[in-house]
Structure formats: structure tokens, C-alpha cells
Amino acid sequence: MTASVYVVGNFKGGVGKTKTVTMLSYESAVFKKRKSLVIDLDPQGNASSVLAKTGNITEINKNITNGFINGNLENEITKILPNLDLIAANTQFKDLPKILIKKFPDDEEKQISYLKKLIEPLKNKYDSIYLDVPPTISDFSDNAMFAADYCIIILQTQELSLDGAQTYIEYMQYLIDNYGININVLGILPCMLRPNGRVDEKVLNDAREKYGTNVLSTIVNHQERLKAYDSEGITYNKTKNGLADQWDQRAHDMFQKVLNELDENKKIFEKNN
Ligand SMILES: Nc1ncnc2c1ncn2[C@@H]1O[C@H](COP(=O)(O)OP(=O)(O)OP(=O)(O)O)[C@@H](O)[C@H]1O
Ligand SMILES: [Mg+2]
Fold first, then answer.
1. What CA–CA distance (Å, rounded) separates 154 from 164?
2. What phi and psi, each to the nearest 5 degrees, are found at residue 156?
3. Strand pairing class (78-81; 84-87)
4. For the chain, how many structural domains are there in total?
5. Gap from CA of 43 to ligand 2 centroid (Å)
6. Phi and psi at residue 133, in whole multiples of 5°?
7. For the whole prediction, is pTM greater than 0.85?
8. Among 72, 179, 181, 249, whose CB has the most other CB atoms within 10 angstroms?
9. Structural domain that includes position 212
10. Terminal Cα distance for the chain, rounded
11. 89 Cβ below 6 A of ligand 1
């Protein structure tokens, strides 16, 4: 087993990054039975709080900050569900830049490649590792891009522009050119987070023209149930007669489609390399 590492990116806030990370990890672990790990690199800890609720965990004592300070992530793993683990973030992780400067004074490359080094010993324990990052160009996103094999880019279909996705791709290219990082765009995922929104067909067409089949054909639409997972954790409830709750089913069906498309794209990359 050697895990593939995925980062979900866009340098804008509130576009659905954390939703995508938490749902893909759940589909991967629960429905595909893959050993899956989420590493929360956002001091806001949104992914950590959703996953803790998902696993009915009231208190998490382990965290990524200690992992970076002590140089060991293996001791910071929290079990969420069978096949689903978490390395949780806490607010103290906001000090990441200071931690890195202290560890590696004057060595920028070591600072931004530290996560890659820390993830290495985890790779033989998992099939998939998902990284959730804050919406900034920062040590957080640099470390994630260095560590990731693939990125999944969020395309906001209601923003009337490709800007969010484009900036991300340009920055990724900058790191590839200047540091030789090895990351590929696995898919561009159209997301529509506002209720009653319409997909902007022009944005989608522009994206397809520019990025071709990288743009996934599944569009993540607004679903109240997905929003509710923020406060209740991710659920897959059964009704009295044993059928799945239809709103849970709808949410999981959508993200399973996304995961299947990403798997297809990954196969193509693997075949060509
Ligand atoms: N498909 C969806 N349907 C309904 N609500 C959604 C959907 N996707 C995300 N949301 C909601 O939109 C908000 C922003 O989503 P999310 O936290 O995933 O964005 P983010 O890009 O991670 O934000 P940040 O940049 O702050 O980390 C959250 O309240 C989330 O529940
Ligand atoms: Mg987030």
C-alpha cells in the first residue's frame, strides 16, 4: 500500500474545499473501503470538527501542531470510523510559520517541504490521504502542494469567472517551475454553493475550453443536507424499513460520482507515467 495524497484547492474562502475533503474521505472510507486519512491543515479546524462529530468523538487530544513540533505525525492520528482517520488541527496551528522558521532558519525549501517529509512514514498505512487547507497563499498551502501527488481544484460556477481556479493553477505552476514539485491536476470540480443558484454555463464552457476533460462532468449542487453535516457530522441514516434516508443518499451519490471520476482520471495519469 502506498497512499496517494490529494489537496483540494482554491485561494478563495468558502468555496467548498472542506466540504469536498470531508465528503470524499467519507465515500473513500465507508463505501470504497479504502484506508483513508484526512490531515487538517487549517487552524480553523472545520474538517476536524465535522469529522469528530461524524465519529461521535467529543474530545480530540492529538493535533497537527504537536506533530510539526515533534517531527512525528504518526502519534497524532485520531480514529474516526473504520477505515477513516484524522489528524486534527487546533487554533495553535496558526503558528506554523513560526514553527517552521525556528526549525529551519533561512532554509525556505525545507520550511515548505516539511509536511512532505512528515507524511512519508504514513504512506504505507493508507490508500488515500486528503489535505484540507486554508484559503491563502501561505506556508500552509505551500506545504500541502509540496506533499500532494494530485490537486482537486474547486471551480465556483456562480462567480462568473474562472479566477479562483486559475490563480491556484498559476501558483502551482510557479512551485513546479521554481522547486520542481511533482503535482498534477486530477480534476476541476464545479461547485455551486448557493441555494436556487443556476450553473453559469459560460463559466463552465470557458473552463472546459481551457482545461478540457480535467473539468469533471459531475457538478456539486447546493443541498441542505450537506450544509447540515457541518453541525451534525456526516450521516448515512436508515429509515425504519431499512432503506437509506433519501437526502443522505443524494449527498453520498453525488460525491461518489465525483470520486469515481477522479479515480478514472488517476488511472489515465498512472497509465501515462
Ligand atoms: N454543496 C453544498 N451544499 C450546501 N452547502 C454547502 C455545500 N458545499 C459547501 N456548503 C457550505 O458552504 C460553506 C462553505 O463551505 P466550506 O467550508 O467547504 O468552504 P471552504 O472553501 O472550505 O471555506 P474556507 O476557505 O473558509 O476553508 C459551509 O457552510 C458549507 O456547509
Ligand atoms: Mg475550509
1. 8
2. -85, 110
3. antiparallel
4. 1
5. 10
6. -125, 155
7. yes
8. 181
9. 4-272
10. 18
11. no
